[in-house]
Amino acid sequence: MEALDRLRCLEELFVNGVVNSHGQAFSVETLLDILIVLYDECCSSALRREKNVSEFVEFGKCCIFFILLFSFLCHSERSKVSEQMH
Predict the structure, then answer these.
(1) How far is CA 85 from CA 71, 77, 79, 81, 82, in A?
(2) d(CA 61, CA 49)
(3) Comparison of pLDDT for 18 and 71, the residue scoring more
(4) What is residue 86's predicted lDDT score, i.e. its pLDDT?
């Protein structure tokens, strides 16, 4: 596939959104969940002795903290809005 065709395909996925992607795109929440699972697996794995895995775990410490914090704050904000609506 040529670069322009790939760009058009990505643009179409972006414009139409995840719901209309027919299983070809992931939501941001799904991608963050995948990152957290990968991080957890790397932390508890014998693979952590590998240089690249170890570097990913070190890099991920800060990122995962902010992802979980952001997720918690978004969830608590949604709960507040939901309570106000009822």
Answers:
(1) 21, 13, 10, 6, 5
(2) 16
(3) 71
(4) 57
Residues 6+ apart with CB under 8 A from 47: 53
Residue 33 Cα distances to 4, 55, 72, angstroms = 30, 20, 13
- The pLDDT assigned to 51 comes to 92
For the full predicted model, state whether its pTM sits above 0.70: no
Phi, psi of 78 (to 5 degrees): -60, -40
SS3 letters across 73-86: HHHHHHHHHHHHHC
pLDDT band for 59, please (50, 70, 90 cuts).
confident
